[in-house]
Amino acid sequence: AAETLAALIAREGVKVRMYDVSVTDVSEVVADAFRSSAMALCSVTYNGELYPAMHELLTDLKALGLRGRTVGLMENGSWAPMAAKVMNRMLENSKNLTFAETNVKIRSAMNEANLAEIDALAKEFI
Fold it and tell me: Global pTM?
């Protein structure tokens, strides 16, 4: 799903960088977040919360005062996706963050409705 979103945005000539927070040092992702005007945060729901590496990233972004960005949210969860709600809650008091109107909610595997949501989110970034 994240690769699909990135491809749709890149196809319009927008520079896209993707990171897997489970294997990329959080400092690299934080540095790029401060260089970018927009970012899509994509996470699985993990025991009703965020995947631990994503939680660490958002904790750092909040502590460092990330502001003035557009943020899109994408979540995946089998029976009760909660990642977007948690990500929004963690960043909602950050200054001048604009959240995309479209949130992508995937239940285990992408389907046609998700592709339409991803397309709508990509258009908000473009």
Answer: 0.92
CA distances from 8 to 89, 103, 120 (A): 27, 16, 10
What token pair was written down for 77?
């969860």
Give the contacts of 111 (CB within 8 A, at least 6 positions apart). Answer: none
* Coil, strand or helix at 120: helix
Q: Put the strands of the sheet holding 49-50 in their side by side order.
A: 49-50, 38-46, 70-76, 98-106
User: pLDDT tens, 80-125?
Assistant: 899 999 999 999 999 999 999 999 999 999 999 999 999 999 999 9
Q: Contact, 5 vs 74, CB < 8 A?
A: yes
CA distance 126 to 56: 28
